[in-house]
Design goal:
- The chain contains 15 helices and 5 strands.
- It is an alpha+beta fold.
- Strand 4 and strand 5 form a beta hairpin.
- Helix 6 packs antiparallel against helix 7 (80-91).
- The longest helix is centred in the middle third of the chain and has 16 residues, at 167-182.
- 29% of the residues are buried.
- This is Transcriptional regulator, XRE family.
- It holds the Pfam family MLTR_LBD.
- InterPro entries: Cro/C1-type_HTH, Lambda_DNA-bd_dom_sf, MLTR_LBD.
């Protein structure tokens, strides 16, 4: 997988292809055979030589200065999350022996907490695996059960896709959040297996993954079209858990006094009966 060997080069190339000359403030003259900016245009706008930029994209130079990376971030119009990700890629990392992935285990106290919460809640692992979920979360989506994977469900399960009226946006946000969660640790066998499987099974995932979007997805509202209670808008909070590195507690909650709050209460009532 190319991501494993040239993360920095793959990233700047993907982002370069998404910036138009008009967005960059340069004239578009003649027929362009590339989407987005040319390499030499990025180099000129960033104040570096075209040869040096080419070496960065090809992975022949993997230790650019922070100033160079920040200049590239400006030209490529990256937001704060994407800029931080670019700086992490440029920092490099020592090569290490591949280890077998360690099983993610929910702390017992957190598992008890999830069950008692009166809101849909589940524990999500680093690779968006569902590690634990309460019954109201499962009532919201039958795929929200321990052993499921949010990426697989959203891209490969038509029933899960039907829950999201704005599925295209939801899918894009999930891929961006997954890339942020994994960061530069792309030599992990679990990551390689999951991305490889989805790239082959879902053309949509493959296209989104090639964009190299990065987003933390904090506090993102979710629009859900539930087959029993209809449309709901739920806020999504992702909370880090002490002693569970890489795991997050996801809690979904409606704004008080709204139609969505009434519908969620109705769903909880139906579930209990």
């Amino acid at each position: 997988m190319s991501d494993e060997f040239n993360l920095l080069g793959d990233y700047v190339r993907a982002r370069r292809e998404l910036v138009t000359p008009e967005q960059a403030g340069i004239p578009s003259v003649g027929v362009r055979r590339v989407s987005g900016l040319r390499r030499e245009e990025v180099a000129m706008l960033a104040g570096i030589s075209a040869d040096y930029y080419l070496r960065l994209e090809q992975g022949r130079d993997r230790n650019p200065s922070a100033q160079v990376l920040e200049s590239l971030a400006r030209v490529l119009q990256l937001d704060d999350n994407a800029t931080a990700y670019l700086l992490r890629l440029g920092a490099g990392k020592p090569r290490r022996r591949r280890r077998r992935p360690r099983k993610e285990t929910v702390p017992p106290g957190v598992a008890k907490l999830i069950v008692t919460l009166p809101l849909p809640a589940y524990m999500e692992g680093r690779y968006l695996d569902v590690l634990a979920a309460n019954s109201l979360a499962t009532a919201l989506s039958p795929r929200l059960v321990a052993g499921g994977n949010r990426l697989r469900d959203v891209f490969l399960d038509p029933a899960e896709q039907a829950l999201y009226p704005d599925w295209e946006d939801a899918a894009q946000g999930m891929v961006a959040g997954f890339r942020e969660s994994v960061g530069t640790d792309t030599d992990d066998p679990r990551f390689i297996e999951l991305v490889g499987e989805l790239s082959l099974a879902s053309p949509r995932f493959s296209r989104l993954w090639a964009r190299h979007d990065v987003n933390t997805c904090e506090g993102t509202p979710k629009h859900i079209d539930h087959p029993q209670v209809g449309g709901l808008w739920l806020n999504r909070e992702r909370l880090g858990v002490s002693g569970a590195t890489g795991q997050t507690l996801v809690v979904l909650h409606p704004d008080p006094g709204t139609d969505s709050a009434d519908k969620l209460a109705l769903l909880a009532s139906v579930m209990r009966t």
